[in-house]
Amino acid sequence: MGLGDVTRAGVLAAVEECQDLGRETFRRRYGFGRAMAYELVWDGNRYDSKAIAGVAHLYSVGDLLPVDGFSGGARTVAHCLRALGFTVEDGTAVTHGSQQVAPQLVLQPRGGARDRGPQNFARSVRQGIPIADIKDVLGGQADALAALYPDGIARLWGSTPTTRVNNEKAKALRSRCVGDDVFFYAESHFIARARILHLFNSLPVAQAVWGTDEDNATWEHIMALGDVEEFPVRVPAAPVLQSLNVPAPLRSLTLRSAEAYRRVVQFFPDSRQPVPTPPQATLPAAPLQLTPAELLDRVGSLNTHRHPGNKAPSRHQPLALLWAASRIAAGKPRLAPWSCFRAEVSPLLAEFGLPGSKVTPEYPFWHLKGNDLWEVHGIESDASSMPQPGIFNRVQPVAGLTHAAAELLQNPLTRLEAVFKLCSTYLDDVDQRELLSRVGLAGYATADGLLDNGDDGRGQEAADEKRATGPTARRESTASRLIRDAAIANRVKELHGHACQVCGTRLQYKHRPYSEAAHIRGLGSPHDGPDELQNLLCLCPNHHVLFDGLEIYIDVDGAVRQAHGGESLGHLRRHADHRIDEAYLRYHRTLCELNSLTTE
Fold first, then answer.
1. Where are the extended beta strands (E) located within 129-176?
2. Is 223 helix (H, G, I), strand (E, B) or coil?
């Protein structure tokens, strides 16, 4: 795959996303720099040609063409874009000026005592690390740090790697850059800020500065910081996080745009402000912010077609949105070309659409854009009626969720609530368990979700109806397992004295107490819950199975209820030192509601 696979519709989709995000944020998100040779010109605005082509490739065929993936260089990119009917000009002739780029906002958890957060902050940020002490492991970073810190004291902070590609931490590690402002979070407050002077990855440096944790991991994604300022009065985090649509408490390294930073700067001391906004004429209009409640309202009020003689709404749009939500859960691009949409959505319409309805994937592909959650690129937007099917095949338009809707659906709770809204409003009389499995959301059938291969320890056994005549055969396998924190699991059991929080039972097994730590929002896909104390319950094996099997749930008043019938089993037993995050209980309740639709 290469530039020859880029379509005009893909380019238009990339251009609109760049308009929504802003040119600098767009480049940062996808790892591109400013165009040094050629710029695409569209509607009087200028765009970085390589960045647009790389993202256009993502929306044309599903794979991002990275900055180092362009054979033939910038001239080939310009030729490709011109061949698609776009104007490309020599960017070196354009005066960009010396305008500063506004910083992004980096939210950085300091970590608690268990993570040695306070000690690490005091040593490597407040006091600083003598460069001479780590010169043996600095390698090529020695000159950079020496230039940044003439006094020989480096202010450093780092992050452990993540294997995920689309969570908050991965996006922050990928898109933060020099000049961004870092705000340190601890105990529901922001305690300090600093500015990023330099970014580098170094396992030896991280080991020398911070050592390793019990999993032999260390903070190898390193930030060199300047302008370190500890707040004399800690800043409450709740209003900041709420304004940024970030769940509280802050659990992970999180990045927000310069535009979002300007919205919350009022909450911080004014000794340093973000770089002033460039003249308004150079910025695209900021899109209206979509809230989770608005998204759910629009999902539940689709303008669905009704067939003559059938009062039931058409299922074409709901099925297409369910497919789109599954793409977000799987980390796929939010936009897809017509050929992909037709191939994947048509079978869903044929199997789960209204009896007797035609399989017309072009209908939801085009008409979903009427609810402000969906966009179509490559066909004139002012067309008064749906184009003829042949036009879709000829121009290969691109369509999918808007950037705002896709960002909201990254949140597992919002995504689950949207899936439940679609299923309960439009699809309540289909085999929803089969539908969710077919669309790629089979993990919603249980509270623990789809675990990594082999993670449940059971594995799939080979079926053999013949009676065994010797020792059970063995076979080799390779498994990928989620890494659980045994210390947190032991902590929740100890706090409750191994007594089940539902029934109070204390089991003894081999002369020792036995209980199980149950995750409320499961670790498996598509739940992607965190492994933390606030997301755990101490349960006996029976109630662990019932909780994971969505047979019982905890209501808003703390009563444990049967999912079918709602009979109360009593109140959940609590402990003062075990705070449970209500958002996780809400997630599990919604999951039970969705499951009840599939079993009634």
1. 129-130, 153-154, 156-159
2. strand
Q: Is the pTM of this model over 0.70?
A: no
Say which residue the tokens 């492991």 belong to.
137
Specify which residues 39 forms β-bridges with.
48, 89
Contact between 522 and 484 (Cβ < 8 Å)? no
CA-nearest of 114, 182, 124, 175 to 154 is: 124
Query: Facing residues of 55 across strands?
Result: none
In total, the chain counts a number of residues equal to 600
- CA atoms within a 13 Å half-sphere pointing along the CA-CB vector of 360: 17
Q: Is 293 helix (H, G, I), strand (E, B) or coil?
A: helix
Query: Which has the closest alpha carbon to 247: 553, 491, 535?
Result: 535
Of 553, 569, 555, 578, nearest to 493 by C-alpha is 578
What is the pLDDT at residue 65?
85
How far is 341 from 337, CA to CA, in rounded Å? 6
pLDDT tens-digit series, residues 181-222: 999 999 999 999 999 998 888 889 999 999 887 677 888 899
* Burial tier of 320 (Cβ tally within 10 Å: 0-12, 13-18, 19+): buried
- What is the identity of the amino acid at 156? L
Backbone angles phi, psi at 410, to 5 degrees: -65, -30
Core vs surface per residue 292-308: b (16+ CB within 10 A) or e: bebbbebbeebebeeee
Dig out the tokens for 397 from the structure. 């338009």
Bridge partners (DSSP) of residue 513 are 508
Residue 598's pLDDT is what?
65
More confident residue, 65 or 344: 344
Mean pLDDT of the chain: 85
561-564 long-range Cβ contacts below 8 angstroms, 24+ apart: 563/592, 563/595, 563/596, 564/596, 564/599
Contact yes or no for 337/7 (Cβ under 8 A): yes
Cis amide linkage into residue 249, ω under 30° from 0:
yes
Helix (H) or strand (E) holding 345: helix 338-352
